[in-house]
Amino acid sequence: MQMLMLEPQIFVERTLALIKPDVIDKEEEIEDLILRSGFLIIQKRKLQLSPEQCSNFYADQYGKLFFPNLTAYMSSGPLVAMALARHRAVSYWKELLGPSNSIRARRTHPHSLRAIYGTDDLRNALHGSLSISSAEREIRFMFPEVILEPIPAGQNARDYLNLYVKPTLLAGLTALCKEKPADPMSWLADWLIEHNPNKPRLQHQITEEE
C-alpha cells in the first residue's frame, strides 16, 4: 500500500487574548496556563481603555442590551492584552476559554478558563477573537504600532521557503559538512547569522580632513 506523504506546511495563526479588569491579579497564573498550552506570547501590554475605546473595540456588539454594561465593565480598570500565536490559535484559544457565560461554563466545561476565573455572562474573565479576520482587527486595535503581514500558507508558503529559506540553508549545511566543527549546532547558527541575505548592510562614508 502506497502511503501519501503530506508536504510540510506553515501552520501559524494569531489571536488576541484579553485578561479583563476583574482578574488582573491572576495575570501571572493565567499567562503560565497560556504558555503551558502551547501558545507563544508575541506581544503584550497592560492598558486601561476609556469607555469610548471600549465602544470602538466592541463595535459589532453595538445596540445590544448588554452593550452599556460591557463598555462600563471593560473600562473599569486596567487589562492585559496579548497577541498569541500557535497552530490553529483562534480555535484552540476559544476551546481553552470555554463558553462565554461563566455559569454555563462551570456546568459544561468545568476545566475551561472562564469556568475557573469568570463570574457570570458579563464578567467572564477573558476575551478571545472569534475568527482569524477579527483577530487581525483586534490585534491592530490593541497594538497599533505592530505591522501585521499576511502569514504565507499552502503554495505561497512553499514558494517562500524555496525562494528565501532553502538556498541559504543548503549553502550553510554544505559548509557545515566541509568544516566538520566540534559543535555543529552553534557553528551553523553563527554561519546563518553571518550569511543572512536579509541582514541590513550599513555603508560608512569616510571623510578626509584637510
UniProtKB/TrEMBL annotation:
Gene Ontology molecular functions: hydrolase activity; nucleoside diphosphate kinase activity
The question of whether Transferase is a record keyword is answered with yes
GO cellular-component term (any): cilium
What name appears for this protein in its UniProt entry? Nucleoside diphosphate kinase homolog 5
Entry keywords, A to Z: Cell projection, Cilium, Cytoplasm, Cytoskeleton, Developmental protein, Differentiation, Flagellum, Hydrolase, Kinase, Spermatogenesis, Transferase
**Do the record's keywords include Cytoplasm?**
yes
Q: Which PANTHER family did the record assign?
A: NUCLEOSIDE DIPHOSPHATE KINASE, NUCLEOSIDE DIPHOSPHATE KINASE HOMOLOG 5
Where in or outside the cell? Answer: Cytoplasm, Cytoskeleton, Flagellum axoneme
In terms of one coarse class, where is the protein primarily found?
A: cytoplasm
Record Gene3D superfamilies: cAMP-dependent protein kinase regulatory subunit, dimerization-anchoring domain (1.20.890.10), Nucleoside diphosphate kinase-like domain (3.30.70.141)
Read off the SMART domains from this record. Answer: NDK (SM00562)
- Biological processes annotated in GO: cilium movement; CTP biosynthetic process; GTP biosynthetic process; negative regulation of oxidative stress-induced intrinsic apoptotic signaling pathway; spermatid development; UTP biosynthetic process
| Position of the signal peptide | none
CDD domains per record: DD_NDKH5-like (cd22970), NDPk5 (cd04418)
User: Which InterPro entries has this protein been placed in?
Assistant: Dpy-30_motif, NDK-like_dom, NDK-like_dom_sf, NDK_H5, Nucleoside_diP_kinase
Q: How does it assemble?
A: Component of the axonemal radial spoke complex 1 (RS1), at least composed of spoke head proteins RSPH1, RSPH3, RSPH9 and the cilia-specific component RSPH4A or sperm-specific component RSPH6A, spoke stalk proteins RSPH14, DNAJB13, DYDC1, ROPN1L and NME5, and the anchor protein IQUB. Interacts with IQUB.
